[in-house]
Structure formats: C-alpha cells, structure tokens
Amino acid sequence: MVLRTQVAVRQRFESLAERWREECKWTSSLNEMVMHPAYQEIIGLGPDVLPILLEEMHSRPDHWSWALRAISGENPVKDEHRGDLKLMAQDWTEWGRQKGHLS
Amino acid sequence: MTTQQNLESIFPGLQLCPWEITSDPDTNYNCIAWAVKTTAKPWWPNDFGYWPAGVPRVETVEAFIAAFATKGFVPCLGGAVEPGFEKIALFTKNGLPTNAARQLHDGQWTSKLGQQHDITHAACDAVAGEIYGSVTMYLIRSIPPDSD
Lengths: 103, 148
Known about the structure:
Chain A is mostly helical and 103 residues long.
C-alpha cells in the first residue's frame, strides 16, 4: 500500500513538474514560477513528495527551494548561495541526507 | 513546427524584424541576469533568487531600477544607440517587471526568454506582447573598458 502511494505520488509529481516547466518556460519571474498552480499542487502533495523533490533537486537542479522550504518548514540554503541552482541543490542534498530523506 | 516558427508564434513581433537564436535553453540564469551580462544566477527579488545586497526584495519597477543601478545603469529617455553607452530596456505587464533586453554595440538587442534561449532581435519591442507586456523604461551606462 505504501509502495503504491509512493508510485502514485511520483507519477503525480512528474506530471505536475512537466506541466510547470512547459507553462513557465517563458517567464523570468521566480515569483510567477512558484505561484504557478502546478507548483502549488506539488507543494500540496506534502511530506510524501519531499524525497522525490530532493532527488530531483540533486539530479536536475531547478527552482524547487521554495517548495522544499514550504513542505519541510526548514531552509538550509546559505545566503551566499541564493540564486545559484547548483549550490542550492548541494545545500538541500546535504540537508536531506542529514534528515534521512536521501541515502 | 521549428523552434524559430514556434518562437515567432509566441512572440509575433519577431516576424517583423531580423532575429536569431544565440543559445540553448538554460535555467541557470534569466533575462535580468543576462541584461547585466551574467549567467551564473537568475536575478529576481524573491527568497531564492540572486538580488543585489541592499536593494529591496520587492517586485517593483523601482526595485529593479535600484538593482540595475548597482551595475551603473540609470534611467534614460529612449532606446536609440548612443556611441560609448549601452542600454537596457525593462518590460512590464500590469505594472510588474517581466523581462529585460540589452542593447548590443550594433543597435540590436539581446534577450533571454525566460528559462529558454537567448536571442538577438533588431527591434527592441519584438518580444513585447501578451507575455512580457511592453517596454516601460530604458536605462543607460557608459560601456565599461573591459566590456566584450
């Protein structure tokens, strides 16, 4: 049952993330990107999507910091890393391993 | 549909002037960063974008002017070529900044289209329209000695 839920969450995430990338591809506004309905729905998936988001951030850094912070209630991104997708991904990966969300 | 045709359907103004794609899509920077000649980080005044220290992290034209000022740009009257100077055009829609284009030495403009390509376009307003709105302001600075 847990596995089925994980599979369903991953499928939903991938569908929403694809829609988000497609519909935000012309915008430079990071606010518009994180307020997009698909992005907000990803946040709404809650803690179940956290490991998936962390994996995604690690393998394909993108603007997931807002969602990760919204779901986890934490923000490990160093001030000097703000804006740099790769460095923010490193901060989140390190945090995910410390919290046991990533192997 | 080719990438060129797709872009011309999304930005119809591109059908009216010479233009070309100059980069692959890249999410590591955005139009504001590209306008100030950096590709390291997207510039945007939210919690996870780069924004110059001391400039309010608010999505207003005034904050964007202040951000460009950290690179020496000040508001000016228009987008005509002025030898020895370079310009940025700031686009807004519904009062919110949406895009910036940078003038090249030959008078053409270069824009980073969101998370997608960089392009050059002969007319500044070729990317105006439904997505980016219109040019609200031009900014100018002397071309730095080390400028490419």
